[in-house]
Structures are given as C-alpha cells and as structure tokens.
Amino acid sequence: MVTWQIGALGFAAGLLISLITSPVGVSGAVFLLPVQLSLLHVPSPAVTPTNLLFNIVAGPGALLRYRRAGGLAGPLTRLLLAGTLPGVVIGACVRVFAIPGPRAFRLVVAAVLLPLGIWLIARAARPGIPDRQPLTRRTTLGLGAVVGTIGGIYGIGGGSLLGPILAGRGTPMTTIAPAALACTFLTSIVGAATYGLLALGTDGDIAPHWALGLLCGAGGLVGGYLGARLQPRLPERALRLLLGSLAAALAVLYLSQGIR
C-alpha cells in the first residue's frame, strides 16, 4: 500500500523531472528510476515495469503539446519504432531472467547513464563543433533495436537514449523531441505488457507497483505538457548541460553502490 507521503513524493518527482526533460525529448523515467529505488523503495525488478507505467501515463502530456505544434508525425518516429518495439521485448526478458538482482542492475544503470551524461555535457560545452552527417536509415534502425533492448532492461522505453545521439548527428531538436517521446511512449506500452505476461509464470516482484506508477505518471503528465510548451523559450545548451551533469552524477553514485 502506498502512503500519502510516498504518493505525494512520487507525484512531485514525476512532475519536476518531466518538466526538465521533455523539452529535449528525454523521458523523465531515465532520472525517475533512481528516485524509485532510493527514496520510494520500489523493489527490483518491479522498479522497471513501474518505470514503464510512468512513461505510459506521463507520455501523452508532452505528446499532446507536440501534436498541436505539428511536430509529432514523421518518418523518424516510424523508423525508431521499427527498431525499438522488438528490442524492448528482448530487454524485458533479459531483465527478468539474466540480471534480476539489485547489484547487477545498478551496474547496468551506471553503464547507461554515464555515456549519456558525458555526451550531453560534451555537446553543451562545445556548441560550436559542427554536427556529423545524419545517420542512415539502416544505422538508425539497428541503433533503435539496441537501444530498445537497453530500454526494456532499464525501464525507459528506448527513445530517450536515441535523442542525444541523433542530435549530435545533425538531426534538429524540434524533430528529435517528439519522435523520441513518441517512441518511448509506445515501447513502454509493449514493455509493460511483456513484464505483465512474464509475471504470470515467474516468481518475484515483476509486476509494476500500480498505485505508485500511476501517481508518478500523473505528475509527469502535467510536467511533460508544461515542458513541451516551454521548449521554444528554453536555451538548449543549458538544458543539455543540466541533464548531462545529473546523469553523470547518478551514474557515479550507482557505480559506487554496484561495486561494493
């Protein structure tokens, strides 16, 4: 049972994180997961499907705003989905059967967050460096499959990891943000359904914590809409530097806990 204090903390965390992350197309789940583990005490591996539930509830807030601005539908969205949807199913199976323990999971979290943080910081610190050529369709599809698998393990859907990579390869942020968030939303639905099916025949805390996931998602719904609405007014360099610093700090924390 979720107490009102835990529920209020989850709602506030979802709102604030989504407010900061949605303007650059990064799912708030990538930063909510450590909050769930450390402050909300969601057990592993149930924390991963709970995070996916957050994405499902929170996603429509930002997507609705981007749809009204005309930036949601496009070929990039369809291409990312073609890779990440099958990948998230594979990732869910790996998460349940290969790395269910909290120690191994923290190391996976650190391995995902650290490169993401370094990449965001580097791009923010050297904005004058010209972008590389955009990725080919085949490369984007393969990258989507890999990131979808990681997203299924980590509970972030996959799209948020692709955003910084695509940005560094010349894709405009106005194109990346709605495509990455749409990808995260749909792959989270598939991932959560996969965890639900696995929970039917597997022992342990695999099913999501519904009440907490819904409360965090409700906060993310509001924060995501406001963040997408504020996107044209926010400096991209400052946002990427903030996100990169937070991701790197969280990675170092979880790395230190995982190797103990």
Automatic annotation (TrEMBL):
Transmembrane segments: 52-67, 79-98, 104-122, 143-167, 179-200, 207-226, 238-256
Record keyword Transcription regulation present: no
Subcellular location: Cell membrane; Membrane
GO cellular component, one term: plasma membrane
Pfam family name, one: TauE
Domain of life the protein comes from: Bacteria
Keywords, ordered alphabetically: Cell membrane, Membrane, Transmembrane, Transmembrane helix
Membrane topology, as annotated: Multi-pass membrane protein
InterPro entries per UniProt: TM_pro_TauE-like (IPR002781)
PANTHER family on file: MEMBRANE TRANSPORTER PROTEIN HI_0806-RELATED
UniProt record similarity statement: Belongs to the 4-toluene sulfonate uptake permease (TSUP) (TC 2.A.102) family.
The protein's name in its UniProt record: Probable membrane transporter protein
Organism expressing this protein natively: Micromonospora violae
